[in-house]
Amino acid sequence: MNDDNLFIMDILNSSQKGMYIVDNQKKYVYANNTFLSILGISREELIGHSVYEFRDKGKYDTCVSDIVFREKNYISIFGNIAVNSNGVIRNERLMINATPVYDQFDNIEYVHVEIELVSDINARFHEATARNLSFESSSFNTAITKPYSQRMTGTSIIANSHLMKKVLSTSLNIANVDTTVLISGATGTGKEIIAEYIHENSNRKEYPMIVINCASIPENLLESTLFGYDKGSFSGASPTGKTGLIEQANRGTLFLDEINSLPLGLQGKILRVIETKKIQRIGSSKELSVDFRLLTATNENLKQKVLNGTFRSDLYYRINILPIHLPRLAERKEDIIPLTQHFNEMYCKKYNKNRIFSSDALNKIVLYNWPGNIRELRNAIERAIVMTDHEYIDSADIDSIIDMQKNELQPSDSQELYNENVYLESLLEQNVSLQDYINDCEKNYLSTALNKYDSTYKAAKALGTNQSLIMRRKKQYNL
Fold first, then answer.
1. Sheet strands (E) in 165-292
2. How far is CA 338 from CA 99, 323, 345, 348, 363, in A?
3. Pairing with 230, which of 24, 74, 190, 215 sits 20 to 30 Å away (CA)?
């Protein structure tokens, strides 16, 4: 083979499209590296073999050469192919372009075929659109580079923006030290994802990461959930006792999400656990040593809560040793199109659909401020894929979905009543007594009054009671 032929072969093999040629006997006579890589077979296994052989093995579902020989014309169709990715087989949607090659007697001698994964077409379309979008801020007029993506177990982090690259770099640098980390950021910015990223890159990754959302567990159950209890500790307790979530994090990572919601009465106990690495189950006099790395997250300004007296200053300074702040999605617009592409691929695979966002739709997505951050964007992309019945999603579709999500941020009276009923039913399922519920309501109402007024006298006046009762309840509830 001369130098010219070698040069041409190098170009064909470097193409992002899969290419192959079959003869008039429907046998492979040529395939480039991309096609071989997609199928996960060698050139020797393919060349000389019939297209039907691989179809019958389930490699693909369409023999496009049959159609070309029948219609004697160029065709474009969709098909499905089994992609071999490092030994893992997954089905992918495929665009196929086939061209007949005639001999001197106008008979088809060969069929030249180009294949391209629809997911790759979408990716290039989104990249090209991103390069041509004119962002309002001059910081986005720079060239769009390939997004930096860090992958872990079941999770992808898209970071094209400077702010998120800095977050990932910091997270990676501190992953293997056991110092406490406080991850701050608005709701939906991905605080738990960053906590998982730190854990997965730490020397504790072989052990569990226990996630505790301090806002989702009813306050009257929070202490027993965190610390566990011995058998017979209280009425309704399991006869065998229960291991607490902190204890389950032994040798691994403990992640306290929304630590800003941690009741004041429990903050002192958490502080002691952090400092001593020991816990005491409810109803037990025995202390247990627990080896864990602590990560925390907040969606509120903890420093302000310290000033308001609703968060202990000693706990704040103990957890805020290594701070990481996650920017809002509106502050990292360079990541919006790569995130859109990522969610589009994910949900198209989940729902077996093909969707492409028009440039106008992407422009709408980029310019919207996304108050719910990544969580809201993800929700919007899933809705766009499920709710639209056409392949190309346009700006009108995005407008409709954004309007729908805006309306959901203003719940109706019926929705609020529904949420209240769901909460009360959950208390019944947890066997919370009427007296416990009344005490909890009284404690929360009194805590609010004490935070609002700067003296127990003023709080008593506002609540229509006497100061001595306020003092007794304050002591009773450890406020």
1. 181-184, 209-213, 228-229, 242-243, 253-257, 278-280, 287-289
2. 34, 26, 11, 15, 13
3. 215
- Virtual torsion, Cα 176, 179, 183, 184, nearest 10 deg: -150
Query: With a threshold of 0.70, does the pTM exceed it?
Result: no
Could you tell me which residue, 132 or 339, shows the higher pLDDT?
339
Query: Tens digit of pLDDT for each residue in 264-307?
Result: 889 999 999 999 999 988 888 888 999 999 999 999 999 999 98
User: Given phi > 0 = left and psi -120 to 50 = alpha, else beta, which region is 154?
Assistant: left
Between β-strands 287-289 and 278-280, what pairing exists: parallel, antiparallel or unpaired?
antiparallel
Find the radius of gyration of the CA atoms of the chain.
Answer: 30
The DSSP 8-state label assigned to residue 250 in this structure reads T
Residue 337: partners with Cβ closer than 8 Å, 6 or more residues away: 126, 127, 129, 130, 133, 144, 362, 365, 366
Least confidently predicted of 162-171, 230-239, 332-341: 230-239
Beta carbons within 8 Å of 47's beta carbon, 6+ residues apart? 28, 29, 30, 31
∠ CA 410-405-325, rounded to 5°? 90
Fold of 3-117: Beta-Lactamase (3.30.450)
Strand 278-280 and strand 322-325: the pairing is unpaired
Whether 230 and 170 have beta carbons less than 8 Å apart is answered as no
pLDDT for 148: 45
Residue 413 pLDDT greater than 60, yes or no: no
The amino acid that residue 32 corresponds to is N
CA-based torsion, 309, 311, 312, 314: positive or negative: negative
Instruction: Find out if CATH 3.40.50.360 is the number for domain 162-325.
Output: no
Q: How confident is the model at residue 409 (pLDDT cuts 50, 70, 90)?
A: low
Evaluate whether 359 touches 219 at the Cβ level (below 8 Å): no
For the ranges 8-22, 414-428, 433-447, the lowest mean pLDDT is seen at 414-428
- Please give the helix or strand (H or E) that residue 295 lies within, else none: strand 293-298
